[in-house]
Amino acid sequence: MDRHRVIGGPDGGIPWHLPDDVAHFRAAAEGRYLLLGRRTFEEMQGWFTHQTPLVLTRQEDYRVPGGGRVSDVAEALARAAAAGQNLLLVAGGATVFAATIAMADRMLLTLVDTDVSEGLSSAQSDALPRFPDPAAFGDWRETSRIERPEDDRHVFARTFLELKRS
Ligand SMILES: NC(=O)c1ccc[n+]([C@@H]2O[C@H](COP(=O)([O-])OP(=O)(O)OC[C@H]3O[C@@H](n4cnc5c(N)ncnc54)[C@H](OP(=O)(O)O)[C@@H]3O)[C@@H](O)[C@H]2O)c1
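A: This is the predicted complex of the input protein with NAP.
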């Protein structure tokens, strides 16, 4: 997320390319069941190799190669548990983060030192997808923090945080 919790650009997609953040996400997702909104899933087509995507959608005939469609979060949790998974990794987008943060017990956040809204009108800015404010959903304790400055491959500084519900 950016400085104002924005996670996507005005035309969809992730508004930065940060190789270490991609690697961080890949490592967290390896072998996991992932819960994704249908829009995020469609943006990530071809990405899933060692993960099982569970896609939240209201379209009853939606097909998810290598995974499955789910109608709600409870169904996703039940499917992950039935497969012997001890966690379900919520991978966005904004609607899915909003629907699940109240029941999350751990968060992996990358804070990206940029402002996606810069140069946009306030209506455009308001329409951007955002991560919810964690403080509105309980008390969290920081269990890990790694700060990385900008460099040749990363145009923005990043802070990798791990939070646990306290
Ligand atoms: N920076 C990051 O880490 C990150 C991570 C993920 C995504 N993103 C960005 O976030 C943006 C997409 O987020 P978004 O919020 O627009 O879309 P989204 O959450 O990916 O997908 C929304 C879709 O999910 C389905 N859905 C959501 N809630 C549902 C519910 N309660 N029951 C059934 N279906 C439900 C609906 O699908 P149907 O319309 O098919 O019914 C809805 O249209 C993109 O810009 C993406 O790049 C960023």
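Strands lie at 33-37, 52-56, 68-70, 88-90, 106-112, 140-148, 158-165. Residues 7-8, 12-14, 37-40, 43, 56-59, 72, 91-96, 99, 129 surround NAP (CB under 6 Å).
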